[in-house]
Amino acid sequence: MIAIIYMYLWSHLIFDDLDSFYRNLTQYYFEKKNYSSRKVNKMVSTVVWPQSSVNFMSAEIEKTEVYRKLLINLQDLVMDPSVSCDALEDQMRKLISESGYKQKLRNLVYQFIAKDPNLKNEIQQRKEPLEYIQKAQINWEHRITKSLNNMSNELGLVFSRKRPVSEQIEFEAKWSELGSEDMDLSRFRPVYSPKDFLEVLINVKSPNIGLVMNPDPGPSTYWSLIKVPLKVKSFHQMRLQFEEMAGYIDHLGLNILPFSNSDSSKKCLKERVSLGKHVLEANQASLAREFCKKGCPATLRADLWSLILGVDICGAHKLNFKHLKSCVFQHDLLIDKLIFKDIHLTASNDDQYFVFEDLLYQILLVFSRDTSMTSHFDLSSANPPKAVVRGTHTTVTYPPNGVIPFHGFSMYVAPLCYIYEDPITLYHIFRELYVRYFFRLHNLSSHPQGILSLALSFETLLDEVEPQLAYYFSAHDIYPLKIAIKWIIKAFSGCLATDQILQLWDCILAYDTTEIIVILAVGIMSLRKPILLQAENQATVENILADISGVKVIPVLHGMLSNAHHHHHGGSTFSR
């Protein structure tokens, strides 16, 4: 009896509700874009969920803590002698709606769709539809694994060794102060850097396209490094996409600048915090995303990001983290040295992050052991690297999470240390950010948010928005992407002040895209245009753009996306 009623409720209450939610959203969107009502109705009526997706999401949700607790409550209700059979269904509906479970379940479904838009389609897209990009990615993976193998052979170190029990105990005792470890890392070097990766991007070429097919290239063609014919958005399309940041806007990042009127700044912040608290009470991920489009108060950022990313720490998360920690204690991996080396080279030497050195070690060591990470390869063009277990023919994923860190990888975690003190929450937030956004920044793919598309978008956007600068670069053999690539790959982490990085990442989460990074990169070039037009070579340009730590993200984005973006050379609004 309970199973029948429950399955009925499950399929109707959650998915029908979600269907209507998306219908309303679609209706709103098309009305906003001034489509005719007939066209709207036709488009809206096509929102149908494939049964396979419904089954998949149901099965996944049944593994969650939310589902388990709901089931316990429903069972208690069924066993309640005061509830009659006739009233049972209504009582169950009431319980699901009023106890907050309905919204929690909707959030879970929303997270699945946000992570994998393919769920809406009957036919699942291939990992990488373009064969030449797939081949380039495979070749790149071979290069990385070869580099790791060479390092292992040169240093005489195995990829993995089980620690003796005494060493495990010692390592566990030092867990919270790993930064004080006196390790000789001089022989270790990063497997690759953003600069190395740029060389790979430059060499990706479509076999179908030659210069013959492009008789009238624009000025950017001469200095553009990315030769892949991917479709990227025009500046006009970008402005439509980020319309909340264009024109006259009431954005927190513009209203609480140091030189703003202090009273109005306080008022604006107070109003945003008050509204933000209501958003958190509503516990709706999509609403939190919309809220962040106008700025995210620092005091609410931790909770808003958790809601948007669907991170609600429960017992399972804590157990998982504890298990991963024990895996770190048990085995010493060659990858660990690369993690230590990267943190030494980056965060340890950074005034903003050196205090978080120990925390970064913990998070990244745990991350390397997280085998559940390999599921993100279903959406990625990449393939997890494999290693052969000594003395057998068995192959395993190495490192266990399938991700080989590059120079600067720890910068994906560092800014988060300012938001989350608890390592477990910090870890799961980082993990979500990585599997949704960051992994695309160091893998070759034709995805609109992949590094190839972003790099190409940077070059085409710079040409469109700043043709004078583009022409000047072309005439002087200057390649701006050589500078911007590290900004893009690291999502500006380590390049800007932490509060500014977090404001940029607010935008990534609010709009669910990394394309905003490109707009900022072009905006910074535009901002420094008067000085750049005096530079005569690549080295000078690199010096001019070496320190961008004073850049204010929201004013630059606003300046770029509003009509006035050509007049923002004054500088005081944008940099300190």
**How many helical elements?**
27
The percent range for strand residues is: under 5%
Taken from the alpha-carbon principal axes, the silhouette is: globular
**Rg result:** 25 Å
Largest beta-sheet details:
2 strands, antiparallel
Strand order across the largest sheet? 1-2
Alpha-beta content class: mainly alpha
Helix content: 55-70%
Uncertain runs with pLDDT below 50, 5 residues or more? 1-9, 21-46, 564-576
Mean of residue pLDDT?
A: 82
Give the oligomer, counting copies of the same chain as homo and different chains as hetero: single chain
Distance between the terminal alpha carbons, to the nearest Å?
Answer: 67 Å
Number of strands: 4
How does the SSE layout of this entry go?
Elements: H1 2-32, H2 37-44, H3 51-61, H4 65-79, H5 85-98, H6 101-115, H7 131-155, E1 160-162, H8 165-173, H9 194-202, H10 220-223, H11 235-241, H12 252-255, H13 262-282, H14 285-292, H15 298-309, H16 315-330, E2 331-333, H17 334-345, H18 357-368, E3 386-388, E4 395-397, H19 423-436, H20 451-465, H21 467-475, H22 481-489, H23 498-511, H24 515-527, H25 529-532, H26 538-544, H27 553-561
Antiparallel strand pairs: 1-2, 3-4
Helix pairs in contact: 1-2, 1-6, 4-5, 13-15, 14-15, 14-23, 16-18, 17-18, 18-19, 20-21, 20-22, 20-24, 24-27
